[in-house]
Write a structure and sequence with these properties.
44% of the residues lie in helices and 5% in strands. By secondary structure, the chain is mainly α. It has a two-stranded antiparallel sheet. It has a two-stranded antiparallel ribbon with strand order 3-8. A two-stranded antiparallel ribbon has the order 4-5. A hairpin with a 6-residue loop joins β1 and β2.
């Protein structure tokens, strides 16, 4: 996407994007697409080999169709072995060998994680045998692989954001930003799992940001979150990014999501899309050229991680239509942000602005069920009848909808 900044308002000006209507959004297909993209990105951080071609596309029956090379890599276990070596670099590489069996054993022994389809067989003494058979029989159906990747995602979340570390980092942040409030409330209702811990961190980040900018219009509607999916509106994540990178992403560039037009739902939708696009832009720059955002020089290991593994595999519609099937993907995204921000700040100072030269990223397109060949990103063309075009240019809170 080409990104410019409006000189008058100081806000980003994004090109119009087509958003898939919720009636055509398939949570199961979205979960499968995310998980396949994520495991392939982990297995091949420098890009898929040319012989892979397009990883998947949408068939006539609206189902996700995996390419033969992706199916072969999943069935043989080779993709998992490569991915786990990248996701868990500190682990003994031999521990992930043995195809699917090594992955299942590590998930069970180290994180007490069992793919959903394995739960009914683990107590029968068959030790992964049924699951392994299913994993090796993947054809057009890949539910067993999605379940295994789901477990790997949760293992990655545990690795990035152990509860004790989330709590300690949150206390450090709160003591520095809100010292007079630190002794009250911070010890109450400590998190009980990874999801609750990240929610704990986000809520305290929002408190700190609102204290830093008490009159910021965009922050007035931000309230305490009780479920992590409430952060899917774009504003919450963009606000957290602004807290840790205030000069790069000033609060003034966020969009207030309170209604400011005669059609509240349309105004809210456009504000959500705008804020989600800010999140996408930040992550794109973080992946393509992270050093351009921060100074002094970032540690080489962190630079390598940021430029090799893209932390955002979610599409715009996944933010707009949160559901239980893609919830783990969203938790993973927040865990990645937590790990990055707590590793960088306050050791580094942000540079002046996110006004980088125009960059090209893949924004979510409307997917039309068809058997046509998708583009290199695995996306299909637009359908004017099914796609809704939202003009995300926001100037002085005057928003428009382009149909």
């Amino acid at each position: 996407m080409d990104v410019q900044v409006d000189e008058e308002t100081g806000r980003f000006v994004f090109e119009s994007v087509k958003v898939l209507p919720q009636s055509l959004y398939d949570p199961l297909r979205a979960q499968t697409a995310h998980h396949i993209k994520w495991i392939l990105n982990c297995a091949y951080p420098e890009g898929l080999p040319d012989y892979f071609g397009t990883p998947f596309y949408i068939g006539k029956d609206s189902r996700l169709v995996l390419s033969p090379h992706v199916i072969s890599g999943l069935v043989s276990g080779h993709v998992y072995q490569l991915a786990c070596g990248s996701i868990f670099p500190d682990s003994d590489s031999d521990s992930w060998s043995g195809s699917h069996s090594g992955v299942l054993t590590q998930l069970a022994s180290k994180w007490s994680l069992y793919p959903m389809e394995q739960a009914s067989t683990a107590s029968q003494g068959t030790l992964h045998e049924v699951v392994i058979v299913r994993l090796r029989q993947c054809a057009t159906q890949c539910t067993s692989h999605v379940a295994l990747i789901e477990s790997l995602i949760w293992a990655r979340c545990m690795q990035l954001s152990p509860i004790s570390r989330v709590v300690s980092q949150t206390k450090r942040l709160f003591s520095e930003e809100c010292p007079e409030e630190f002794t009250t409330g911070i010890e109450e209702m400590l998190p009980y799992d990874i999801e609750d811990a990240l929610l704990f961190w986000i809520n305290h980040c929002l408190i700190c940001l609102k204290k830093r900018h008490p009159n910021a219009q965009a922050l007035q509607e931000l309230m305490e979150l009780f479920d992590i999916v409430e952060a899917c509106d774009g504003l919450v994540i963009a606000a957290v990014m602004s807290l840790f990178s205030p000069q790069t992403l000033p609060v003034s560039r966020l969009s207030d999501q309170s209604s400011s037009s005669s059609v509240p739902s349309e105004s809210l939708a456009i504000s959500c899309v705008y804020n989600i696009q800010i999140v996408q832009l930040f992550c794109a720059v973080l992946h393509k050229n992270p050093q351009s955002l921060f100074q002094p020089q970032l540690p080489p290991a962190l630079l390598t991680t940021l430029t090799s593994l893209s932390i955002l595999q979610l599409e715009l519609e996944d933010f707009l239509y949160p559901n239980k099937l893609t919830k783990s993907a969203f938790v993973l995204f927040i865990a990645e942000l937590f790990s990055i921000f707590t590793a960088i700040f306050p050791k580094t100072a942000p540079k002046a602005s996110l006004t980088v030269p125009p960059i090209t990223t893949t924004l979510p397109d409307t997917v039309t069920p068809t058997n046509e060949e998708p583009d290199s990103a695995g996306r299909l063309g637009h359908s004017e009848e099914q796609g809704h075009s939202l003009n995300s240019t926001i100037k002085d809170q005057n928003t428009t909808v382009t149909n």
